[in-house]
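REQUEST FORM: STRUCTURE PREDICTION
Request ID: SP-0412
Submitted by: Lab K.M.
Chain count: 1
Length (residues): 739
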Amino acid sequence: MLDKSLLPNNITLKLFKQALGRYGPLIESISSTKAPKFGPNTLLELDHFRYHDAINLFFSERTRPPMTLDHVRTLVDWKLHHGQFRPNLMKLVSSNSETVVQSTIQDAIEKYRENSSETKALKALAILNKLTGIGPATASLILSVYDPDDVIFFSDEAFYWLCTDGQTSPIKYTSKEYKKLSAAVHSLNERLGTSAVDVERVAYVLMKDSLPETISTDGETNPTSPIAPTSDAQPAQADSSTKKAKRKKSDTGNIMAVDFLSLQDPDPIPLPERFAKIKRKLIAGNEKAVADSFYRLLSQLRKEADRIAAAGSDIIPTIDYIDIHSPTKVAVFRDALKKRGVAVIRRVVPPNVAMLWKEETLEYLLHNPPAKGFPANDPQLYELFWSPGQVRARADSRLLEVQRFIMNIWHSNNEDALVSSNHPVAYADRIRIRKPGDTSLASGPHIDNGSVERWETDGYGRAGTYAKIFQGRWEDYDPWDSSTRLAVTSDLYNGVSSCSMFRMFQGWLSLSPIAPGSGSLQACPMLHLTTAYLLLRPFFSPRFPSGPNFLHDNNWNLNVAQTSIIQGAVPGCGIQELSRALHPHLRLHKTMVPIPRVEPGDYVLWHPDAVHAVDAVHTGLRDAGVLYVPACPLTQTNALYLARQRKAFLLGLPAPDFAASGGFLRGGLGGEREFMGRPGVQDVNDAGGEEGLRSMGLLPWDERRGIAGRVERELLRLANGILFPDRFDLGVGRKGRRG
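STATUS: Completed
RESULT:
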């Protein structure tokens, strides 16, 4: 029986939020014990669709896509996992025709939108009830994703909590009962300022699990809490007495800031013992400073996670191409990008141009031998590098202008560093045309450009990229200092997914309208904090591996004896993986947000250390086409790679990073050598002129005009010597033509 303080008329906003914060962990726990029923999706995945993807698709003031039978089936699948299983319901719902489903739902939503009376939901439900298998409960589920603020799903748990004081009693699922439920929701929302979708989840928590015994209804931690202070001493290096003095009392006992997580699954992979030695050496002499810095970091992560969760996609900075020369707008955009590490630049090329590049690529595929790709049986990520659309895009003056603009956010603290963001160079990557319903191209949270290399002396250690973090001064670390990236070796193990160029930004150009959940990108927009946490996490372990205070500072100690474990990192993997289990303080279920909807011609860019992921399921109705186009500065290493890439372009071979890789990117000598319509040097010139030719290594840089200073001139001479050794002397500089 529920405590009286948790009943709808008595519950406080504080207790409401505490219960809401427990919904995610509860669903994750239930999902781990329930097998999928009608497809491959687990309850956790279906829950993400119901509360995230579906709402993003249909709760919008812009033009909404029609809800299809597949969308309805997915919602019903969630309903059957989430509540009582009814074996015939899916069969009945599936018997509806696609046309009838779409037209009926459209009629219901139009009726709901045009009606301002209190009975508008009931009128819409009556229309939806005409569909086979769709009763008031399922109809309310469909309607709720169109208006999650005011329309509640007619669930058993919601009805019990709101209408029968938490007592279970027979429900007839009538319109009269739903009217009573809606009135109760409206009353609670008016009192607490909440929304129907949150009330629904709170009801589920309270009826399924109530509140943990270790938390009293006044929000204070009881002495029986498994993380209550004990006499166990923390390592001397951590100076636990100082650490505790810096914490506020409110940090403990507040389950608003707590995620009920556990490290039990999956287990991190132990690496060779030499990695324990690497870790010890990295922080030797700075143990106390590192420990103190970790606790400061946890405090900032809590605040930032709440800020991101509240803002959602709106936190990702955007700017229009026509505004990149406006000092006022650029200043705002620049500050936001430096903090977030991910951005969208709108309308870099006109939509019709971007869509033409896509059509040219499809024509190129149609009239040539089948291109390899992934998945092998139905390619959507094509092993294609020199199609007309790809070549035109890389050489396009607008893209090159935007790359110069965005790369100038970087700077060099070493005035002699040989790097120029004023001279973008092309990196030939692939094209992706992801189909609706696809799950094969999903990827979880990760960072590219290396794995264990971030901790290894011969990797990022050569450049001292993260030295300040390992000294306990993560606040002083500058993720935008290009001079600390030039000597990096990000691939010590010949991984299959490594990039040989220094990319200041990874990125893709949209070739289709792509909404969140439709094969788009997700990102964790707190660049500085995620980098610091990722690097320090392997040095710390929890005293208790689970419990309501799992994430509290006093549950985490600096390891006295460092292990060989580096969470999410494996030699040769090429990427750093992240997860809620291995990196719990990042609260990835809250902080991984979808980028805003993009249109053809929009350019999405993110810092090479930014945590990002790809939608698990493409829930949209049309393909999601993107060209991978990173922003790369001119450096000596990039010029060396450009020389190899130029040869591949001229011969129609796969780009060098993909020519001999494993897996589905087999490359080989075939490539596009015999493809009809493959562009040549003249096509690059037609698309981008001299600037486009230089970006592809097909024309020397002018060492006399538009040079920022001595170092840039020296770099251009060096690059010209690498790319055109018959015309330029690599050691001395420009010599003119040889005899």
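NOTES: The chain has 25 helices and 19 strands.
Reviewed by: T.R.
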